[in-house]
Amino acid sequence: MANQTAVNQTAAGQTAAHRDAKGRRVVAVTGLGIVTSLGQGKEANWQALTAGKSGIHRIERFPTEGLRTTIAGTVDFLFDGSFTAPQLSEKLATLAADEAVSQSGLGQPGDFPGELFMAVPPVEMEWPQKQELAQTLEGDVDYDGLLRAAASQKFKPMHELFLFGAVADHIADRFGTKGSPISLSTACSSGATAIQMGVEAIRRGDTQAALCIGTDGSVHAEALIRFSLLSALSTQNDPPEAAAKPFSKNRDGFVMGEGAGALVLEDYDHALARGATILGIVAGCGERGDGFHRTRSSPDGKPAILAMQDALDDAGLTPDDVDYINAHGTSTPENDKMEAMSCAAVFGERMASLPISSNKSMIGHTLTAAGAVEAVISFMTIANGRIPPTINYANPDPAIALDVVPNTARDATVRTIISNSFGFGGQNTCLVLTVEPTHA
Questions:
Q1: Active-site residue 365, yes or no?
Q2: Where does the record place the region Disordered (predicted)?
């Protein structure tokens, strides 16, 4: 594996800038933060993940009578149902970012010396707010009437709350990030896309640091019903903790989850110069879109295959360099089959023994946050030399011959990970995460 630092020597014998296999700035990780249904912070999450504990439970935030799915990985230990989805998403992002920025030691509180790239849910007004607005209208509720109500300024605070970029704007104010905050939503790959955008900005020299966050607090009745109507959710409600079963023969859908992941990315040389502890490297990113279907994955797996291959090429590595795959692993029949087939196409015969596990078996699918949450978990895997398991694996699917690290965490030397994020609408983003810089 090419894992040595690329260092050039000047004529005077001084160390020149570090560059990756393609001559670009190396992107280091100096801070990590996480909140999931398993707890707040890296320590709580790592202990639960490696113990094979599930954070999925019955929904108590709103009535579920008559619903086919009544479970989720919500963060009720922190917040009750009085929060709207944007408010909860902001709270989760704040907690994760606080932990990441504090660990990085970068800048003064409220004065982060870099840009913000933030994956947020596709925020819109929820039913209570829609009803409040509609009740102010006389006669039939129509589009013109809603526009007049909006123009009255009476509901301005509500509108500001639900603006797509409001969450990132508030986070930027709190942490003092530089430039215009970037809000993005690429479905279930959003968190990984936020990291990719931070990597690209540092490589270009646009910024020396980036705060990259994925957050999602979207478990509310309307969202649950929408996913249920798409037949995307598990209906195996009893017991809740056994519902998410990626790669198992009896998998029947994903379980919604809430959470946030935050990473402080930094130019490697900038981090070294200030004596920062470097937690790892984001060595490669790959992104492909297919547009095959609004919800279904392309059945030939081509976009996912190309995204993984692009990420490895971007890192200057080969499939043989990968020690572990952090799977997208949603527990839906189609996605797990597609991911297994795509990984086999990239890694060949190695897939029979190459560890691949799904964190979603324990925390549920954190949707917009998933790519960032799983990147944080991947770096914890590297640091601790222990692979979190895929729990609830009691009924193997003979069509998916994988080493899913079943049910129990496994000690292993892990230096390079590929983390997969595949989203509705054909969004496919893969990250290659390593211990130290690579060079050709």
A1: yes
A2: 1-20
